[in-house]
Amino acid sequence: MSTFLKNARMHRSLMIGGVLTLLLLSVAVLSLFWTPWSPTAIDIANKLKGPSAKHWLGTDHLGRDVLSMLMSGSQISIIVGFLAVSVGLLVGVALGALASTYRGWVEELIMRMSDFSIAFPIIITAVLLTAILGPGTVNSILAIGIFNIPIFARITRGAANAAWAREYVMAAQTCGKGRLRITIEHVLPNISGALIVQATILFAVAILAEAALSFLGLGTQPPEPSWGKMLNNAQTFVGLAPHLAIFPGLAIALSVLGLNLIGDGLRDVLDPKLARAR
């Protein structure tokens, strides 16, 4: 752990990503207790105002404070990203581990199911869920989580197959341990680094996907603030109030950039051989 922390402190991209992600988390936590204004409070008299001492990032077409909406919207982005990645991680890792453990028809069945799932992108999956259940945050989580499952399954299966050829696995087999026990006790712990890196990267993808779904009206519904919904509302007024598009766009870009930098940094720190090759 001390070696990991030392290498992490020396990795510039990882540190920058950590700062950006910590800023995102701090804003989300702060918004639970305080925002400059109520994010849903309408003030038509002050609509489409630019940044000022009263409204630091201006107001939207209904007079709502943009900064307060951004702060509250960060909660949705984090919740959707975390839960969607958790769904993909838990189900995908389990399926990938089973495929690598038992091989044969089990592996073939799971991989073909993954291929079938990948054939349906996030947007199409969200449209399907919306048609059945209606739009909403929960459906965004389900759509993104379903999309993440085959990704984690494939990564787990590939990394686990490589681990099965390692000496420590052969030693465990010699000791008479069963394949499932070896997977749980030896294989999964030794491929956890690759899974953590992928989870970090897919967290960024989930934030971007949630914004896209909200932009299309398939995700978080009014009056709950959402970065994607803010961008959707900004389309009509971008000529009069460009700040309505600039600030939500910056929030999404910096959040995704921070998580991607963390993912790249963790990949280098956890796999020095890959870092030297790059």
3D structure, described in words:
The protein is mainly alpha-helical. The chain is built from eleven helices and no strands. α2 (12-33) crosses α10 (243-270).
What is the strand and helix layout of this fold?
Blueprint: H1 2-10, H2 12-33, H3 66-102, H4 104-118, H5 122-133, H6 137-163, H7 167-174, H8 179-215, H9 227-237, H10 243-270, H11 272-277
Helix pairs in contact: 2-3, 2-10, 3-4, 3-6, 3-8, 4-6, 5-6, 6-8, 7-8, 8-9, 8-10, 9-10
Outline:
The chain is mainly α. It has helices at 2-10, 12-33, 66-102, 104-118, 122-133, 137-163, 167-174, 179-215, 227-237, 243-270, 272-277. The two termini are 24 Å apart.
Tell me the fraction of residues in β-strands, as a range. under 5%
List SSEs in N-to-C order: HHHHHHHHHHH
Q: Count the beta strands.
A: 0
Please tell me how large the radius of gyration is. Answer: 22 Å
C-alpha geometry: elongated
Mean pLDDT: 89
What is the distance, rounded to the nearest whole angstrom, between the alpha carbons of the first and last residues? 24 Å
Instruction: Note the quaternary state here.
Output: single chain
The number of helical segments is: 11
Question: Structural class, please?
Answer: mainly alpha
Helicity, in percent?
Answer: over 70%
How is the biggest beta sheet arranged?
Answer: none
Low-pLDDT regions:
274-278
